[in-house]
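Narrative of activities, Objective 1.

The group set out to show that a structural description can be obtained from nothing but a protein's sequence at a throughput compatible with the screening campaign. Below is one input-output pair from the validation batch, recorded exactly as produced.
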Amino acid sequence: MGAPRRPVRRSVLQQAFEEMRFGVTRTLNLRTSLPTASEAAQRVEKWLRQHQVQQSGEVLVITGRGNNSEGGIAVVREATLRVLYEQRRKGVVDRFAEHNAGAFVVTLAPFKSMFEAASRRREHTSLPAPASPATLAALDEHTRELLRALADRSLDALGVRDRQPFVVAEMLRLFGSLAATVGTGADREQQLRQAITVAMSEYD
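Output recorded for this entry:
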């Protein structure tokens, strides 16, 4: 008679199920890197914006329970929760729920929701500053054409009939929003075009 099999630890089994459901690319594990509250908030916001562009749908953010935190306060979890509420208000997050005491399942909003939320709440000034290049003139002509087409769709959705006086301002606003979702590498303009294309597909 063989030796009895050891029970699989619940945390290991749970991790296996999470990896099957979300995969590595749709999981942000903050528990392994032990960031500060500020670092966690910045990582979560940037990561959520990037996955909204990628149309990832449902993602998992693992914060840990904070059992080893000073005073037993789960600072990373609380910082993440604040970001989730803020990004829901800004149209990046559609909804979120507690997966367990140390993780959140997040459903991302359609990409155009971010633009519509900013327009409704007049939050243009609170959007992240555009990444370099700082002017539309520095962008490739094809990128500018795509950005103008997106601005036309955005203004149409807002019910603006005489678009001409507002097109440039809308292009700048959209550029500022989109720039926060792309990296800073040599291919950032290509990433920007991809983000514009995704946004336009949601208006069509």
